[in-house]
Amino acid sequence: MDIHEHQAKDILAKFGVPVPKGDVAFTPEQASFFARQVGDGSCVVKAQIYSGGRGEAGGVKVCNNETEVREFAGSLLGTNLITKQTDANGKRIDRLWIEEVSDIDRELYLGFVLDRKTERIMIVASGHGGMEIEDLAEEDPDSLIRMIIDPAVGLAEYQARELAFKLGLQGTQIGEMVTVLTACYRAYRDLDAMMVEINPLVVRSDGSMVALDAKMSFDQNALFRRSEIAALRDPGQEDPRESFAADHGLAYVGLDGDIGCIINGAGLAMATMDMIQLSGGEPANFLDIGGGASPERVCQAFRTVLSDANVSVILVNIFAGINRCDWIANGVVQAYKEVGIELPVIVRLSGTNVEAGQKIITDSGLPIISANTLAEAANAAVSARPKSIAAE
Ligand code: GDP
Ligand code: MN
C-alpha cells in the first residue's frame, strides 16, 4: 500500500529524519494561509498523488509569493496529473503539500528496499539524486552504492558512516547522514514497510541535510497489525475497480482482455488465465474470490468484473476445497437476479458439493454454459465471445 509524500514525511520525521516545515492544503485558501506564515510568502507547492515524476509533469513549483501560491494551487486542485509513472488518465489531485523553500547545494538519492536474493533490507544510494532510480540505473549505474543490512545486527553505525563517506559527505554531514539512515531503517523495520525512498535527499547551502521528497509503501499482508498505517489509505488514488474489490475481500487486478474471470485460489486463477490465452483469448482480469466465498461475495465478484466495460464473457472456475460448489452456484444464480447479467457466463465447478452445485445451475433454467474441465471452460469462454471481438 502506498501513502502520500506528506504522510511519509510525517512518519520519517517522527523517526528523526529532518524534513522541511510544511502543511497540507485541500483548497487554494489553505495553501495561501500557509504561505503567509513563512515570512515573504515564498514556498514550494507540491501535488500529492501516488506517483513520482511530479516535478517533470508540472506538479511541483517553487512560488515566490502568496498570490502565486494561491493561483498555482487553484490550477492544480481538482485536475488530473499525468506523469511518466501514471496511466494516460493520470491521478487526481485532491490535496497539496505546501513547504518552505530549500536552497539546494547537492541532491542525493536514498532508497531502502527488500532485496529478495539475500532476503534482507538493502540500502541503495547515489550522489546523483533528483533523477528517478530507473533513469539513474541506466544513465549513471556506477554512482549506485548498495549495502545489505544484517537483520540480527540491524544497521551498524560503521556501515552508515561508510555510506556517508562513499557519497562524499564531510564534517557534520556525516553525523546527519547516520541519523537519516538509522531513522529510515527503523521506520522501515518497525512499520513493515516495503520501500522507503528519499529522492532527493538534499544538502542545503547552509550545509544542513533535509528530505525534500519522501515515498513509503507498506506490506499489504502486515496492515492488519498496522492500523495507524492502514488508516492513511487514500482510495481516491487507487484504481476504483481494485479498491471496490479490496473492500469486498477480493484480490483483483485489472487487465486488458475481454474474458472476465471469477476464480478461487491465486494458482488456479493464473492457470486459468494461461488456458484462456492458449485457447486464443485474453483475460480481462485476475480475480481470486478466496476461500469460503458466500453467495454475497460471488455477487460482488460479478459486480467487480462487470465494472470493466471491455468484458464480453464471464468465466467462473471453482475448485472447491474450503469453498462449496453449492454456495458458489447460489451466488451465480443470485448475481443473475441482482446484478442483471446479459453476457454469456461459463461455469466450471469441481470439488466439495459439486453435484449439489451443478443441480442448482441446471434447475435455475438460466442460460449458463457448464464445463467439466479447465480446458473445456477456457475454450467455451473463447467461443462464447461476440463475433466482432473474436475477429479482432
Ligand atoms: P517528484 O518529481 O515527484 O519526485 O517530486 P520531488 O518532490 O522530488 O520534486 C521534484 C523536484 O522539485 C526536486 O527534485 C527539486 O529539484 C525540486 N524542488 C522541490 N522542492 C524544492 C525546494 O524547496 N527548492 C528547490 N530549489 N527545488 C525544489
Ligand atoms: Mn522525487
Summarize the structure in words.
This protein has helices at 5-15, 28-37, 66-76, 133-139, 157-166, 172-190, 227-230, 240-247, 266-278, 295-306, 325-339, 354-364, 374-383, 387-391; strands spanning 22-25, 43-47, 60-63, 80-81, 91-92, 96-99, 104-115, 120-126, 145-148, 193-204, 209-211, 215-218, 251-254, 259-263, 285-288, 313-320, 345-351, 368-371. Helix 2 (28-37) runs antiparallel to helix 3 (66-76) and helix 5 packs across helix 6. Helix 11 links the parallel strand 16 (313-320) and strand 17 (345-351). The chain is an alpha+beta fold. Bound molecules: guanosine-5'-diphosphate and manganese (II) ion (MN).
Task: Outline the fold blueprint.
Layout lengths: L4 H11 L6 E4 L2 H10 L5 E5 L12 E4 L2 H11 L3 E2 L9 E2 L3 E4 L4 E12 L4 E7 L6 H7 L5 E4 L8 H10 L5 H19 L2 E12 L4 E3 L3 E4 L8 H4 L9 H8 L3 E4 L4 E5 L2 H13 L6 E4 L6 H12 L6 E8 L4 H15 L5 E7 L2 H11 L3 E4 L2 H10 L3 H5 L1
Parallel strand pairs: 14-16, 16-17, 17-18
Antiparallel strand pairs: 1-6, 2-3, 2-6, 4-5, 7-8, 7-10, 8-9, 10-11, 10-12, 13-15
Helix pairs in contact: 1-6, 2-3, 5-6, 8-10, 9-13, 10-11, 11-12
The structure holds guanosine-5'-diphosphate and manganese (II) ion (MN).
